[in-house]
Amino acid sequence: MIAKATEISDGPGAFFADQFNNPDAASGYGPLADELLEQTGSELDAFVQSVGTAQCLTGIARVLRERCPGVRIVAVEPSESAVLSGREAGAHKIEGVGPGFVPPMWRDDLADEVIGVSTEDSAAMARRLATEEALFAGTSSGSNVVAALRVAERLGSGRTVATLLCDSGLKYLSTPLYSSASV
Predict the structure, then answer these.
(1) What tens digit of pLDDT does each residue of 76-135 get?
(2) Which of the four pLDDT bands, split at 50, 70 and 90, describes residue 175?
(3) Cα separation of 124 and 146, whole Å?
(4) Which residues, at least 6 apart from 28, have a Cβ–Cβ distance to it below 8 Å?
(5) Which domains are delineated in the chain?
């Protein structure tokens, strides 16, 4: 995909944002950190986020660590392709994350830990969010919630753990995630 995007960007009227290597992309996520702190009254114990380009986690972690020094930052990756954890790349169906290589903007000190979540658990959580909470999201959002619940369970009651629902479930309507056979 990256090679094709590069090829297309060589044409007239095209621009390649290069999300994996753009050093300015992470700063665009700072306002999300501000919103998290505002909504939690700056009482945030952990932030959990899946990693695709690593830009979202980088931008949010920068602001959170500056303004909430004790916050725990947790990265999420597909357990079938746990390259951030030092394992081999593999096939998974969690769209938008786990590209199969360590993203160029990733730094080992970015997260306090990395949690792997399977495609199966991610999809099950996305469907659960839709049916039980009326939150219509995709598999990467399901991964985030699975990992956030694991972190919250470890931290115990009275702690605040935040994550993001990254996308709408609309683009998954024609996929097995929300097909009538899987619901």
Answers:
(1) 999 999 999 999 999 999 998 999 999 999 999 999 999 999 999 999 999 999 999 999
(2) confident
(3) 9
(4) 55, 59
(5) 17-172 (3.40.50.1100)
